Structures are given as structure tokens and as C-alpha cells.
Amino acid sequence: MSLSWLILVVLAIAAMGYVMGRARALKSAGGDSRALHSLPVYYGTNVAMWAIVPAFAVLLVWLLAQPIFVNSRVLASLSDITVADGSSMGLVMSDVRRVADGLDVAVQQGAMTVDAARTLTTEDTDIRELLGGVGVALGSSVSPDVLRGAQTYRQLTGVGSVVMTALVLIIALGGAAFAYARSDADFRARNVVEKGILVLLVSAASIAVLTTIGILFALLFNTIEFFRLYPAADFFFGTKWAPSFSGRGGASDLGVLPLLWGTFYISFIALLVAVPVGLFSAIYLSEYASPRVRSIAKPLIEILAGIPTIVYGLFALLTVGPILVSMFGKDTLGWMSGGTAVMTAGLVMGIMLIPFVSSLSDDIINAVPQAMRDGSYGLGATQSETIRQVILPAALPGIVGAILLAASRAIGETMIVVLGAGAAARLSLNPFEAMTTITAKIVSQLTGDADFASPEALVAFALGMTLFVLTLGLNIFALYIVRKYREQYD
Predict the structure, then answer these.
(1) Inter-residue contact 349 to 304 (CB < 8 Å)
(2) pLDDT tens column, 12-48
(3) CA-CA distance, 411 to 245, in Å (whole number)?
(4) pTM of the model
(5) What separation in angstroms does the CA of 45 have from each of 29, 41, 48, 260, 445?
């Protein structure tokens, strides 16, 4: 049974349990809901929860644990020569999974039987040609060990799926039966359901926190491994970025300073565009615009936040870049040699950040008490004087927080930089030259089959940790400013 069908069956069991539990509770009270401890809906919900929550918990744990178990068994069945010949065990397992998926496709399309896929050998059959005939492309020929690993992988995965299906259904039915048997008039169903919902809410919050911790540790461990292979001083204070991958010769220069410079330079230009436009837009919408204009203009501005960044990147590459070349290129001022430059990415990124600054600043300005405006007008100040001398100073902490949040968003941007700024890592003050950022180099270092035993691949995690610390610091600083001064004008 497929995973989607298994989930639907569990939900169907829960729905039936809901109806039956509710009916049993009413029957035990003689049909009078007033004789029940809780409302009838709580009895049905209790049965449904006991059917869904334990079953889905086991399903989730099984889906997380089965790949680890299967991979370990498959790797144990492979010869040491097979693993040593590859770049890493991960690449060998990637080949094994690719062949196993190809065999599944061949069986589904009728190109071979299940028994034939289980007894297939490389001596009798060209596996690459066979799988290519069903639309599965393999980059190289399949070795006997990889084929044997793929067959073991399919067998263990198939057995695991059957056992998982049976176990989940048994737990769902058992949980529903247990809750159904307790559905009588004296059972405190509301208390149980509310405690269960509280546990679910705490679990959801814990998942979010644990995910963040997991990301942090994943970055941290790989960053520590990188610094074991490459000097930390050369990374943090090096002024040259020139990775040399295996087979190209030479040592790698992995200094982060050119990438930091490009990141901050592009972000600075983006903020020069976004902050004035976004702040002036917020002032107009909150203080000058009529309700009708505000109801139209504010959603239109916020649409910019919903445009995918790849679209912004294409806009920078195909529209903004050529316009800047026509204005500052070799035929005019001679400052710009190509469409990819810091200015190109900065301008487009600034457009993307306008709704962040505008929307947050608008909400902050509107939060300034009306009594402060009325008091200013009562003293004879004009509207512009009130905005300059009363409203903006009162909202300034929140506006600064909004700007810092927008800055952290700019630092973490990738696609606009990849398409609009180029890939050159350099230290230069010329905004019309191509540069790159930390995020762009993280993508380039991990593109393709990366060998995670080399510093050229592990440096991506060190870059990610650096970016994580920068954005986290900006976010904490922004929240500190907002919270420190938020109560001052309530």
C-alpha cells in the first residue's frame, strides 16, 4: 500500500471512530446529551485522536528510521573495494538508489517481472541499456556490487513497507477500539481531548525549535571539520577566493573577505533603494492617503513581496543590466563592461525589499497614538511638522528594526545575486563591476557531486555558518530595538 493510501485509510478509521464514539456516548446516556460529562463532539474527537496520533507518530518514526537501517544494511553487503573506488559512501548509495528506482520503474512498466528483477545479474544483462529502455538514464555502467546492493535495497524497502503498513493499521484500529470502549457517560472526554491538543501544540512548537537546533548543529559540525582541513585565520582574513578542485592542481585560497565585501556592498545599495522608497510610501499611506487609495495601493505594493526571487533575477539579467550598460557602458561613460554588476543586483534587490520596509513601517507609524498627533495639531504644528517632529521620532525604533530585518533579508538573497551580480570574488569600490556574495558561492561549491571530504566542499558550511551568525545578529539587534522602545509610546 502506498503512503498516500495508508494515510487515507487511517483518516477513514478516525472518521468512523468519531461517529461510533459519539454514538456510543449518547447511547450510554440514554440519548440525552445533558447526562454526559462532556459534549458529544468530545467523545468522537477522543476516538479519532487515539486512531490518528499514535498511528501517525509510528509512521513518522518509521519513515525516518527505515532509510537509515536500509542504508546501513546495504553498505554492509557491499564489498570494501566498491566503497573505496567511489568518492564516498554517499555517492555509492546514490548509485544504488538510482539503480533500485530504475528496477522499480522497469517492473511497473512490465519490462521485467519481480522475480527477474530480484535475480538479475550483470553477466547476463546490460543493466544500463535495460534501464535506459524504460527511461532511466545512468551515467556509467553498473557494477555487480552496485546491482546486488540495489536488489538488497529493494527487498528491504519492500519488506519494510509491508511491515509499516500492517503496524500502522493495527495501531490505528487498536487506538480507536481502546477509546471507543471508554466512551460512556461518565468518561471525562473533554479533559482528555484538551490535554491531547495541548500535547500536539507543544509538539509542534518543539518541532520548530528542534529543527532550528538541527540546522545549527549540521552547520557547526561540518564547519569544525572544515577548520580541521583549512586554517581558520586564512579563511577569516584571506583576501583571495580561488578554490581549486581535485584534478585541477594547485592549492585553494578560501578567504571569506571578498565574499563578505560583495554581500555587504550589494545589500547596502539595496537598502539605499528600499529604505527611502519604502519609508516614504509608508508615510504617504499612513498619513496622507485616503482610505480608498490606501486599500488599493497597499496591496499593490505588497504584491512585490510575493514575486519569486528567480523572476527578480531574470528581471535584473534581461532588463536592468542592459539598461545600465546603455547608460554607463563603454559607448557612454565607460564605467560598466557588462550587465552583471553590483549595481544591477543592488537595484533589483532594493525593489524586492520595498514591501518589507513599507509594510512594517506603515504598521509601526499607525501604532503611534492618535493623541500625539492631536496634541501636535493643538499646539499649531502643520501636518508635515507633526510627521517630522512627532510621528517619526516616536516610530523611529520600530522603523530601525524594520530596516535591520530588511537588511538580513538582503544578506541572505541568492538568485538575484547569481543572475545579476556575476560570480567574481573581488575587493573593489566600483559598483559597476561584477562581484559575488556568500550565498552565491555556497550554491557553486555544492553544485554537482561534491566530495564532502575536501575543504572545497566543506567551505560551503563555513560560509553558511558565517551567514547564519550575521543574519541572526541583525535579527536579534532588530528585535532588541523594537522591544526596548515599543512600550514608550503606548
Answers:
(1) no
(2) 999 999 999 889 888 888 888 788 888 888 989 999 9
(3) 27
(4) 0.67
(5) 18, 6, 5, 54, 50
